[in-house]
Amino acid sequence: MKKSLYIAAALMSVVGCSKSELAPETAGTHDINVSVAVSTGDDTRAVFDGDSHIKFEKGDYFYAAVAKKETPTKGVKVAKSKGAAAGVYYSIFKIKDFEATAPVFDGELWSIVDADFADEYNFYGVFPAAAVNTAYSEEDLTSWIVKIPEEQTATQTSWYNRADIMLVKPTTISTSNKTHNDEYGEYSTVNSEKLEFAHLFGFGKISFAGVPDAYKSQIVKSVRIEAVGDNKALAGRFSVDITKDVYDADVKSTSPVSYINLPGDGTTTVSDYVAWFVANTGEFDVKITVFTNKADLVFERKGLVIARSAITSPIVNYKSSDVVTSHDVALAEGETWTNTPAYSKIINSSYKERAWGDGDKKMNFSISYPGSNNGNYGTSLYTTDGYTQGLASSTIIGGKVVLSSAADFSGVKMVKANLGIYTDGVTADFTMSLVKDGKQYDLDKVNITGNGNNPDGKEYYFSGNSECESGQLVLTVDNLSNQSCRPYIGALSINPAPGIVLDSKTIKVAKTAHSESVDCGVYAATGDPTITVADDAKAWLSASWASNKLTVTVAENTGKKRVGTITIKAKGLSETTETVTVEQASATAVTYKLSVTAADMYKVLKAEADKLTNEGKEVDPLSGYPVTAKFTAKGVNDATKTTEVEIYGDKLYIGSATETSFKSKGSIKCTSAVGAISKIVVVADKKMKAGAFDDLILKLSSDGSSWSKVNSNALSYTGDGPYTSTAVIEDDSINWFDIAVTNWGSSTPVYSFEVTFTTD
Fold first, then answer.
1. For strand 688-689 and strand 696-701, is the pairing parallel, antiparallel, or unpaired?
2. Which of 500, 650, 525 has the alpha carbon at shortest distance from 579?
3. Is residue 520 within a helix (H) or strand (E), and if so which, with residue range?
4. Cis amide linkage into residue 722, ω under 30° from 0
5. From CA 478, how far away is CA 486, in angstroms rounded?
6. CA–CA separation, 529 vs 551, rounded Å?
7. Over 60: is that where the pLDDT of 180 sits?
């Protein structure tokens, strides 16, 4: 019985004594070259091949140590490389040809000093080297530390090879049969001793039977075997005396680990799964948990016996007392499930699956790319308030993205999702579905166009399917106009509170008496919304709702601009309220246009230059000067109406101005509020932009003290130099402007600027 545990191998060694000319630290030392040829018996290799033996793999190696006969537990110091001084107590033995019928391991015992050189050595070893966790600077060979890993990458046909720790049976290397080489001053010797390996621990091969139909066909994600009795040293670190025969080796747990985790392969079901593992010897009471996407199956059993170098093959039969925890999320009548994106929930290259849900009911979600193998994955996108889930990090080969829940939701009446495409101008279909028993039930589909790399998204509502209210929640993105597409999903809710969706919460209407309608979608409500007009606006404003349209009716306005509010309330699982502002144009307001040309500015700048010259000051054409001047703005609809606007330039180049252009290296801005600014047009050698590092920018303010850059979406351009830059401003509170050349650029030639504003 004992003999069958060992792996037989032929050992050959070559011993060399260094030449006298070598460096002092290695002079008088000896090298021993060792080759270990593995036999071809039944129990001869390092990884089980599913039949009757194990096989070695490419790159395999083990750690060896030698001791003198008179001190068998004291290691002989050797070098890490040829020609180096001895400093460690181990040597590396690497496989030479792992595919050979009788594979060979080669190793070297370098730089053995004269005092440690002997006619015979005891030879020890541990395979694989990756399992050894000892301090190699120690010469004590009775307490090497080895580790059974708790994470074992087993397959359906074999245990994890790096967990299968084998000891070399102590054997003898002889150097007494040596011959002298006069030319090199070296000795050589040949040995034919046998070298044998034996498994230090044991193996498990667990399968499952009698699992209910609802679970037996589910794909195994992973399996966890946990020791729950008094003996918990299932894995972890162990101290072992490598100088002993494997049967006499004293193995002690130094850092016990009570569990072993095993992976699924993505295809094997519970009924077919085989849990291969390596474990410490002994008897264990265990809790075995099988994890699938839809459930956790827990089996608690007593008396799992693991024997050295043996395979234990129990079958776990399902009992009614076994615990099954479903991952399904059941929504009771009136219950809402929500998920707010956070960085800890983002599915990406590191986390292929993440648990979503704001409450106790969590659900795992994952992203797949049918028809693609280009390594795509989810990613995070920054929004105004936080994060959103990007559904693709690169080009979507195959043109489809699928986001799906791992388990089933039930009681699904409606789904609300914040959706969008990060790639500007690309279109795609977003289809929300429930998948039950392999059949897909579509809730609804929307077509979305990418909007300027904006990840804030828009709310979409997907009505429930009367045929099916339970199943995996699946969002499919396909029919892409371009494979370079980055769709995303933000907040997600099932059976949400009523939603009131408006393109804008401000409705601007003309001064005339009339009615007009705007889109106003109401979702997840139990009836029509209630519409209420504020008391102070009822004399001139009324409103109604029908067929997802809000209709407002206004009387003629004969005075100044007036504002009224409308409250929309919708009831469902809860109550949702939205407020809409109606702004009716003034009958007394005047719209002005301030147009300032280079010729206009030249008059002002020439006068300023003449003034400075008359004062005896030299005007530098390469320097900017502060200048203040008033210009006349004319009524757009009535040119007889005029108003003066004072303009201040803090760095205008008065010495280089012409009637066709003038230069600025600072601000051109109003000194007081001019009115509600609706448009600004600038003709200059540079485009007017909104970036932090742009040369020419437009800044706006509602109070003259707090400024912000114009939104880039409000800008447009014509020409290829000079450029005509146009900013359209929709915020009625903006009544200050600043056309500024930043410190990043040089002075910029300006040809004209134009400001349209309204006063009441």
1. parallel
2. 500
3. strand 514-523
4. yes
5. 12
6. 13
7. no
